[in-house]
Amino acid sequence: xxxxxTGGCGFIGSNLVRYLLRERPDWKVVNLDRLTYAGNLxxxxxxEDDPRHVFVHGDVCDRAGLDRVLAGHAIDAVLHLxxxxxxxxxxxxxxxxxxxxxxxxxxxxxxxxxRGVRRFVQVSTDEVYGSLGPSGAFTEESxxxxxxxxxxxxxxxxxxxxxxxxxxxxxxxxxxCSNNYGRYQFPEKLIxxxxxxxxxxxxxxxxxDGQHVRDWLHVEDHxxxxxxxxxxxxxxxxxxxxxxxxxxxxxLVKGILAELGKPESxxxxxxxxxxxxxxxxxxxxKSRRELGWAPTHTFxxxxxxxxxxxxxxxxxxxxxxxxxxxxxxxxxxxxxxA
Length: 338
Ligand code: NAD
Ligand code: DAU
Prior knowledge:
alpha/beta, Rossmann fold, globular, binds 2'deoxy-thymidine-5'-diphospho-alpha-D-glucose, dTDP-glucose 4,6-dehydratase activity, NAD(P)-bd_dom, lyase, dTDP-glucose 4,6-dehydratase, dTDP_Gluc_deHydtase
């Protein structure tokens, strides 16, 4: 199996590359990434000499480049993660979200259709369903009601992927996952931002009243779900993935401070995010039933491990904060792939 992972130098993508090399040792993993601010070759440290992983510096919006990669590596299946992923950035500057998330996905779908790729997994988000009230959970049949430019662009990408299945018969599976946490997450997202700020003795900015709820899933459990969706998902179907670990932001931030032995006085309530979704929760029954997927990490243990990882790897996040990581230009002795 030759699998193309797009966005494999980001948070989930780099964890997925490692997961694939460990759990599917006979697969070849081609990792196409543009290395935006969110892409970091240091997330793949230790894989330099692994011939099963090939890094290609490329853009999902570059159709000719996509053709070269699909043909040159005889790609059988695609796990499409490359995206602009941060809601706050999409509020400050939506355009790149439409370019990468919508147009980039369409270019990739078209290239896969022409090259006869056997399976396309569109890695999406629970945010396409919008916000929940105090009870209930998103199923795959929940209406699509995205709130932010980020989630609207992901919704557009999902619909294009499903349209390529319906119209052209491309073998597409869509996964929609809740909030991930784990190692190598860019410290603009809630958990790493709070850990890093606490370690630096800086204020922890909690948006609004801090009562917004997210449903947390360990990134390795997400990776397991993506591989199962690739192997077992039915074409044209959507699968929700979620950890069953709903937490209010404020409670989560207090838990991180407790884990680090830092005072709650570091918490600073700040102006709320525009259009801020109040609550997400996933009903993963279909993924459990059809894919045999089940998370293996409890939230308390997974969060503790994750906080420790950031404590033990200051060199990783210090280089991210200083921008030094952007000077890392080669991954393998072969350099950037063709
Ligand atoms: P991330 O921002 O950490 O990484 C995104 C990666 O995509 C980076 O390596 C970046 O360089 C790359 N990229 C961006 N534009 C590109 C382009 N034009 N061409 C090629 N590569 C490009 O994101 P993440 O948190 O790892 O999320 C990965 C995917 O999973 C996204 O599609 C996101 O919507 C989805 N998702 C994320 C979460 C979460 O909690 N983080 C939850 C559900 C779904
Ligand atoms: O639900 C899945 C989504 O989860 C993914 O599709 C997105 O790519 C990913 O970024 C994430 O989106 P969120 O907006 O939920 O994640 P974020 O970490 O930005 O924020 C989580 C919650 O914490 C949200 O309610 C906003 C709040 N927050 C966030 C930051 C960065 C704060 O209160 N303070 C902060 O500094």
